[in-house]
């Protein structure tokens, strides 16, 4: 058997030098006259170990990482093709603590299989969910998804089954499945990893959604900053079409479903579902007033399911192993697993899929290993740029939609960004307002005008101008934005601002040496 070498082509691994490593390995193979197959897989998400190279040995896979091009010669010299010892030797990937501690349901194949091989996908359980779904009525599929407790992973946590039921029950001559792959939240990369590392799971999830709701066409709206994901998804759709997974007869059934990949133009607000629909229709991305809900009148005025990548990619395992299996994981009303993305100033950054319920402290201190700088953790922003900053005093908060809401925070797309004690929370509060001002679609006044006034008022606090009065003004402004904005961009910007003021009041005290924010 010729040796197999797995080298990730995931963007994160590429950014860390995976391409150079792949080239060095290929030329070393040629020089030594060794025949081997190089598979460009996705990443398993332990980014502190990327580029992580794996070899298939008689005793299973053996990983090495982080591999530098300069390691390649010595890797060959130490017999890495048969799992030989080396300073980069990590052993069986499943035993690496960061990976061993996870519960991989949605990401089970990511970093393991060849992303564009349907054979490899099927060998690892791919298409079981769709095959089972095709045996059921649409209503029974929707019931399974509802029963699983799956909630939208894009941010709002809305029950996926209920959304699907609304579309199933709405009459339309054409219905659509739209996958939201805009992934604009800071510190998030789960959608990208799935699209690059296991694109068929998303295609399978979307196809199940189509069969379940009567939609025959799907669109994946991917942010333009993800060229690798766009390329992989386009190729995967082609492969799926050729294999009859997509097309006029899905896996030989009476259902038709096909899909297209569309690329966004780089606006954060185009991740908001109605602005995304406008953008897909070729218009400037502006938030639409609801009602009508997209489920009733969505893309081109037709009933539309719009779901996040991870929501859709979680459906195949539910349809494969059953709603009860999935529901068994998690806590409270947060069922199943959630891919937590650990980023920022953190020692072990990466993607960690786990059942809901771990505390924030466990995630940051034990899984993330604290800060990369070695300084104390000061704050953790959870849920993207609209998420609250959590101080250490709230580290006992379990990762659960309701528990976070009870602490005036949100889980969002489950991205967490860690800051050490050098972070200036006044600057972070200003940044939140400035971000809102830049990204606002401009449709409603509290967000469009409020965010700019917010920046100006925080600048006055920074400059020591009537700090108490201006702090009260920012608080008042946050209330107006929270309750008066049309969508969550203006409505949630108060979370990072108010959590900074509430949990880090010392950073807002006038300091004579403080200079105006640049
Ligand atoms: C300003 C803003 C940006 C958003 N960005 C995203 C995004 O990038 N990806 C995403 O899936 N949802 C995003 N959302 C949430 C979507 O509006 C919507 O709730 C989601 O796509 C629904 O899918 P889900 O039920 O599967 O989560 C955003 C919302 C707002 C208000
Ligand atoms: S809150 Fe902001 S982004 Fe949302 S509709 Fe209003 S102006 Fe547009």
Automatic annotation (TrEMBL):
Its cofactor is FMN. Residues 426-471 form the NADH-ubiquinone oxidoreductase 51kDa subunit iron-sulphur binding domain. InterPro entries: NADH-UbQ_OxRdtase_51kDa_CS (IPR001949), Nuo51_FMN-bd (IPR011538), Nuo51_FMN-bd_sf (IPR037225), Nuop51_4Fe4S-bd (IPR019575), Nuop51_4Fe4S-bd_sf (IPR037207), Thioredoxin-like_sf (IPR036249). It comes from the Bacteria. Keywords: 4Fe-4S, Iron, Iron-sulfur, Metal-binding. CDD domains: TRX_Fd_FDH_beta. Belongs to the complex I 51 kDa subunit family. This is Formate dehydrogenase beta subunit. It comes from Mesorhizobium newzealandense.
């Amino acid at each position: 058997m010729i040796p197999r070498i797995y080298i990730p082509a995931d963007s994160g691994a590429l950014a860390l030098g995976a391409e150079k490593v792949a080239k060095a390995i290929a030329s070393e193979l040629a020089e030594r006259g060794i025949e081997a197959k190089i598979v460009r897989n996705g990443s398993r998400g332990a980014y502190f170990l990327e580029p992580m190279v794996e070899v298939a040995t008689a005793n299973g896979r053996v990983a090495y990482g982080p591999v530098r091009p300069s390691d390649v010669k010595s890797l060959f010299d130490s017999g890495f093709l048969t799992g030989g010892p080396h300073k980069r030797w990590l052993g069986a990937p499943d035993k690496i603590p960061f990976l061993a501690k996870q519960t991989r349901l949605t990401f089970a194949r990511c970093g393991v299989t060849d992303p564009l091989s349907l054979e490899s996908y099927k060998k690892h359980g791919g298409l079981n969910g769709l095959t089972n779904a095709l045996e059921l009525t649409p209503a029974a599929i929707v019931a399974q998804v509802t029963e699983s407790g799956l909630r939208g992973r894009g941010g709002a946590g809305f029950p996926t089954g209920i959304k699907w039921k609304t579309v199933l029950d709405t009459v339309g001559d054409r219905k659509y499945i739209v996958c939201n792959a805009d992934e604009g939240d800071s510190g998030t990369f789960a959608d990208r990893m799935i699209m690059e590392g296991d694109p068929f799971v998303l295609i399978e999830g979307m196809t199940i959604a189509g069969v379940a709701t009567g939609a025959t066409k799907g669109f994946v709206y991917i942010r333009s900053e993800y060229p690798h994901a766009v390329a992989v998804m386009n190729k995967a759709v082609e492969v799926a079409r050729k294999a009859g997974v997509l097309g006029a007869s899905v896996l030989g059934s009476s259902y038709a479903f096909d899909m297209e990949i569309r690329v966004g133009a780089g606006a954060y607000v185009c991740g908001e579902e109605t602005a995304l629909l406008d953008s897909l229709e070729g218009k400037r991305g502006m938030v639409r007033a609801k009602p009508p809900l997209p489920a009733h009148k969505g893309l081109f005025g037709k009933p539309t399911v719009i779901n996040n990548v991870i929501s859709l990619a979680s459906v195949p395992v539910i349809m494969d192993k059953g709603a009860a299996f999935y529901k068994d994981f998690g806590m409270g009303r947060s069922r199943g697993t959630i891919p937590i993305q650990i980023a920022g100033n953190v020692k072990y950054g990466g993607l960690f899929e786990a059942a809901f319920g771990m505390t924030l402290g466990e995630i940051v201190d034990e899984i993330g290993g604290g800060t990369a700088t070695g300084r104390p953790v000061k704050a953790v922003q959870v849920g993207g740029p609209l998420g609250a900053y959590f101080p250490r005093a709230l580290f006992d908060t379990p990762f659960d939609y309701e528990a976070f809401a009870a602490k005036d925070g949100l889980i969002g797309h489950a991205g967490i960004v860690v800051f050490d004690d050098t972070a200036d929370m006044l600057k972070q509060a200003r940044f939140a307002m400035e971000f809102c001002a830049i990204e606002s679609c401009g449709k409603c006044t509290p967000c469009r005008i409020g965010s700019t006034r917010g920046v100006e008022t925080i600048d006055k606090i920074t400059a020591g101008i009537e700090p108490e009065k201006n702090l009260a003004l920012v608080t008042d402004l946050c209330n107006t934005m929270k309750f008066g904005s049309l969508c969550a961009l203006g409505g949630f910007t108060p979370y990072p601002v108010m959590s900074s003021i509430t949990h880090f009041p010392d950073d807002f005290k006038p300091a004579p040496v403080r200079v105006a924010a640049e």
